[in-house]
Amino acid sequence: MVTLKIDGKVITVAEGTTILEAAKTAGIAIPTLCYWRGLNDVGACRVCVVEIKGEPKLSAACNTVAAEGMEILTNSERVREARRVNLELLLSPHSCHCPPCNRNGNSTLQTLAEEMNIGEIPYETKLPKNNWLAGFPLVRDETKCVKCWRCVNVCEKVQGLGVWEVNGSGAHTKVTIRDGLSMNEAGCALCGQCITHCPVGALVARDDTEKAFRAIADSEKITVVQIAPAVRAAWGDGLGLSKELATEKRMAAAAKALGADYVFDTNFTADLTIMEEGSEFIERMTHPNDYKLPMFTSCCPGWVRFVKHEYPELCDNLSTAKSPQQMFGAVTKSYFAEKLGVPAEKLFCISVMPCTAKKYECDVPEVNGASAKDVDVVLTTREFERMLKAAHVDVSSLEEREFDSPLGTGTGAAVIFGATGGVMEAALRSAYYLLTGKNPGADDFKAVRATETAGIRTAEVEIAGVKVRAAVASGLANARALCEQVKSGKAPYDFIEIMACPGGCAGGGGQPITDGVEQAADRGAVLYELDRQNPIRFSHENPDVQALYGEYFGKPLSHRSHELLHTKQSEWTV
Amino acid sequence: MNRLEITQQSRAEKTVRGLYDSLSRRIGASPVGNCPVELTSAFLKLCLAQSCGKCVPCRVGLDRLAALIDALLDGEGSTEDLALIERTARAIADSSDCAIGFEAAKLVLDGMAAFRDDYLSHLTKNRCTADFAAVPCSAECPAHVDIPAYIALTGEGRFADAVRVIRKDNPFPSVCGLICEHPCEAHCRRSLVDAPINIRGLKRYAVDNAGVVPAPAKAPATGKTVAVVGGGPAGLTAAYFLSLMGHSVTVFEKRQRLGGMLRYGIPCYRLPDAYLDADIDVILSLGIEVKLGVSVGKDIPFDELRAGYDAVYVSIGAHADKKLGIDGEDSRGVISAVELLGSIGDGNKPDFTGKNVIVVGGGNVAMDVTRTSMRLGAKSVRCVYRRRVEDMTALPEEVEGAMAEGCEIVPLKAPVRIEADRDGNVTALVVQPQVIGEVDRGRPKPYDADAPEEKIPADVIIVAIGQAIDSKPFAAAGMAVNRGAFTADKAGAAADCAGVFTGGDCVSGPATVIRAIEAGKVAAANIDGYLGCHTDISSLVDIPAPTYKFKPAAGRVTNTERDAEDRKDDFDLMEKPISREEAMQECSRCLRCDHYGCGSLKGGRNTKW
Fold first, then answer.
1. Contact status, residue B531 vs residue B247, Cβ threshold 8 Å
2. Which residues on adjacent β-strands are paired with residue A472?
3. Least CA distance to B129: which residue of chain A?
4. Which residues contact A324 (CB under 8 A, 6 or more apart)?
5. Which of B125, B548, B600 comes nearest A41 by C-beta?
6. Closest Cα in chain A, distance from residue B564 (Å)
């Protein structure tokens, strides 16, 4: 332990604690911009500088370790002056055209400028040139980048991809795409972690809200909204809703309030995915010579992009089951269109996802089964939030409402798709039933649940005398470690679930952003609670899924299932 | 009004001089990997600030050139702009009235030739091709030793850990502590404050105080075999790392002892056998088989090695001598530096008592034999060189050391012929005085002065004008050779010779020990890959966190030498170590670029390769 004095307060902290963290324990706030705990402590913005008595220079609180006997001032005139100048400098090459910015109201730079009462910027405001690949689902704006380098570090360290790099020197130092490649070639998984870790509006997801608004306004179109499991754990964040108000049913009401004709739940097709993928897994396990093992889950398009770019030789290990989003699109434009008695083209499928890669997935030509485009537009949770704001929906006063039927029913097994380990757990619950004819305990497979937001977890489960060796990973650096094992033939697993984002979709790149806070674990906990509360906790018990098989697909892996619910990812255009 | 006045420097002028000094220190220690186009723009602005402003090309041209380059850097340039930059620079170089202008334009033209790809990358991709090196010392060290780590460890008294960290990249810590040319110090960021850290001195301090540090554990045996031809620093480095990777290594050495030029080229007063043997003992402790006195190509055909081993590394060094090619060179008493130092390496010291010795040459080897001759009892030692003292390629401290020991440097004399008595014993070197002339390929070239030849009496003449590579037997067996040196790619793979790798002096020509170590390390990594393996070499030593303390300007602690009078008659180690308090102060000066600056962003450390 070390004892030091910060702003006159005597504080004792563990050795190795930074000044920033030490101050926090005493309730002393030090402003930061580039810092992100555990990810980025590069000390680049110099906004967190503090005065250490006896030192002639100010030190960065984020990466200076507290030492015995230190006396620190966090709010002296000298400190304020340096912070202020640095902030003014940061603002001078920054596009301060705030109202149209995606992050207006949720920008750390904006907050700091307000907190420090910045008025006129005394420097020439000169914006760098901006160039970007038009239409790409991930959008970068050089004129807003503050060079905090978080995107570089999250992509390199957490995702193991290194799409972003620090380039040039001096005033022209900037973030560029690695090796001078274009965004199409750089192997970007489109996980969107750089977006959720950006303190400003330099990295955003492509805004597709106008497409959704136009479809809703088009009286010729029947708009069908699906909402992904993880969205319900976060949708109220940017709307200022309390946890109590931000319920699933109010979310359904909010989507309805936007004017959508049908508001369904992706949980429905998550259950359908389990039926198809679980059956496929049993088929693969029982015919090991005909298929590749281990089988990988395939519902995360960030992960699929990663496999296609980094490990194309493992493409055939991916389950051919489409993701719940795409199954939903296919079912909507076939089964549901038939039910309504309208041509598929009349339906417009809008999906609300915690994800940026889903914007890519819905545009993959080879993924469609029921129409030219099964899912017409993908909105992130943040876009959903922006639409509600733009439509001036007073969300907190909305009455709760059930999802519409028949594609609105989901089980507890479906809702945990939004957390790392959830797909595996749901699949094991139903695989057990499919092999033994009996249900296991709903919580029998909790070993695969997240203990922390990232990492690799493994479990061995015996079902009807068959030993199933499962592994679960989230975060692409972890995925890479598993892929290397699989490639070398040394992976002792039969079934592997991978989610590109740390913590799974709960921590997805399309989720609302609270700067500096990793929220995947808390959001995942919300989903597990919803699972616990759901009276049905097995995908195979979803009555509407059972009806769908009865009326339309026959059984899992049927000919029609293969036509509509399966795909060959190796053929996907990237 | 006074008719004339004594010049007095104003405060402003004095300060500007000081700023120039500080800037030249900064330029001298320039960071590694800056954008060359960005630097060109900055240099141009400096040149413009130095312009008197009289002439158009300089006054207006340099300004417009800088603006064009800046636009390019801002991503706003065009192909036409690039052509305009070139056209303008050429006109300025052609038409400026004085050097301020034409040298500035030349800077742009030279740059456009040397890093045109970077200009084009800025133009087409708004992107720089340079890669900023976060830690200059490690980046500049050819073996990329983790220098901030071992300085921090030394500062904490963890000397054995310091040695372990060094060995991750360089199995010769003991040797390098004494004789490395320390390119690591050239760009030390500490130079921006005062002067570079005495990195080599600290390495020696750590090694001297670490005791015997055993080699790390080897990886499991791969069953693969590698033959290393030549037991010098390159060969032994490759052998060490390949052995750690689990391969079975056999070293074939032509001479009776291992060490190559470290043993047979560097005198003991700079590198005592004990230091060399300390490193070699650890290397051999891995179980490397050594075959001494075996000349590949003579005692055993090269093809036999290729057939008998999974891979072969050829690192035979440059041990053949070069001749002056003048009359009388075959007289008795004329020897080459390689011959002299080689026989001393085998334990046969000639006696020069009472003899007048002349050394011909201006490099480090010339200094080595000059100072060695003094230690062998010579009455007088003269080093004859055809250029000026400042043109000598020997390190300045070597030249000064030789002079302090009583050797004489005789510059601007070109050897013409050697005279001998009737019995064929050398009597004198006849030289032609020289005038230093125009710069040719970066160095001023001497030419014959309008002055008569001079005769310098001598009993021994030692020719130290470079070494050659004995590559013929290998060339005959199929290895590609260009001007005597083996041809290899960047990975160390010999051209057109599958499974054969080569490196060190026999590829680069005579170079430094750390270059040879680099070659051996690179070869080991790529031979491992060639053998279908990928075993990482790593260090598990935990590195102390940097302290936050500000480091005020302080003098650099340098190693001193024994007094010239005391050292000039023996072969004992000449350099004195630094003391503990000096070492600790020197460690505390390190700015920890692995953490501060770009080190915190780019990681600053490779824990394995």
1. yes
2. A457, A497
3. A168
4. A228, A266, A267, A269, A270, A272, A273, A299, A414, A417
5. B600
6. 43
Question: What local confidence, expressed as pLDDT, does residue A187 receive?
Answer: 95
- The yes-or-no answer on residue A277 being catalytic is yes
The pLDDT of B558-582, averaged and rounded, is: 93
> Could you say which of A43, A63, A169 has the minimum Cβ distance to residue B34?
A169
- Out of A345, A366, A452, A563, the active site residue is A366
Write the pLDDT tens digit of every residue in B142-183.
999 999 999 999 999 999 999 999 999 999 999 999 999 999
A42 → closest Cβ in B76, B548, B600: B600
Are B523 and B580 members of one domain?
Answer: no
Strands A138-140 and A71-73: unpaired
Q: Could you tell me if B601 lies within 8 Å of chain A, comparing CB atoms?
A: yes
| B412-469 residue pLDDT tens | 999 999 999 999 999 999 999 999 999 988 889 999 999 999 999 999 999 999 999 9
* Catalytic choice (A188, A505, A518, A541): A505
B76 touching chain A per CB within 8 A:
yes
Which pLDDT does position B227 carry in this prediction? 97
CATH code at position B70: 1.20.1440.230
Q: Read off the pLDDT of residues B358-372 as tens digits, 9 standing for 90 and up.
A: 999 999 999 999 999
Tell me if chain A has a CB within 8 Å of the CB of B74: yes
Give the alpha-carbon dihedral of A448, A415, A204, B127, to 10 degrees: 30
Whole-model pTM: value is: 0.87
Please write the tens of the pLDDT for every residue from A462-498: 888 889 999 999 999 999 999 999 998 888 999 999 9
Residue B501, in any domain of the structure: yes
B126 in contact with A at a CB cutoff of 8 Å?
yes
Q: Clarify whether residues B461 and B475 are in a common domain.
A: no
**Cross-chain Cβ contact B545/A67 below 8 Å:** no
The packing angle between helices B580-589 and B147-155, to 10°, is: 130
What confidence tens digit (pLDDT) does each residue in A345-393 have?
999 999 999 999 999 999 999 999 989 999 999 999 999 999 999 999 9
Q: Is residue B252 classed as helix, strand or coil in its secondary structure?
A: strand
Judgement on whether residues B267 and B330 belong to the same structural domain of the protein: no
The answer to whether A361 is a known catalytic residue is: yes
Res. B548: pLDDT tops 80:
no
Are the C-beta atoms of B373 and B459 separated by less than 8 Å?
A: no
Which residues fall within 8 angstroms of residue A488, CB to CB, at 6 or more apart?
none
Domains and CATH numbers, chain A: 2-91 (3.10.20.740), 122-205 (3.30.70.20), 223-571 (3.40.950.10)
Nearest to A169 among B132, B552, B600 (CB): B132
> Which residue range(s) make up the domain with B146?
137-213+545-602
Residues in chain A: 574
CA of B310, closest CA in chain A: separation in Å?
A: 24
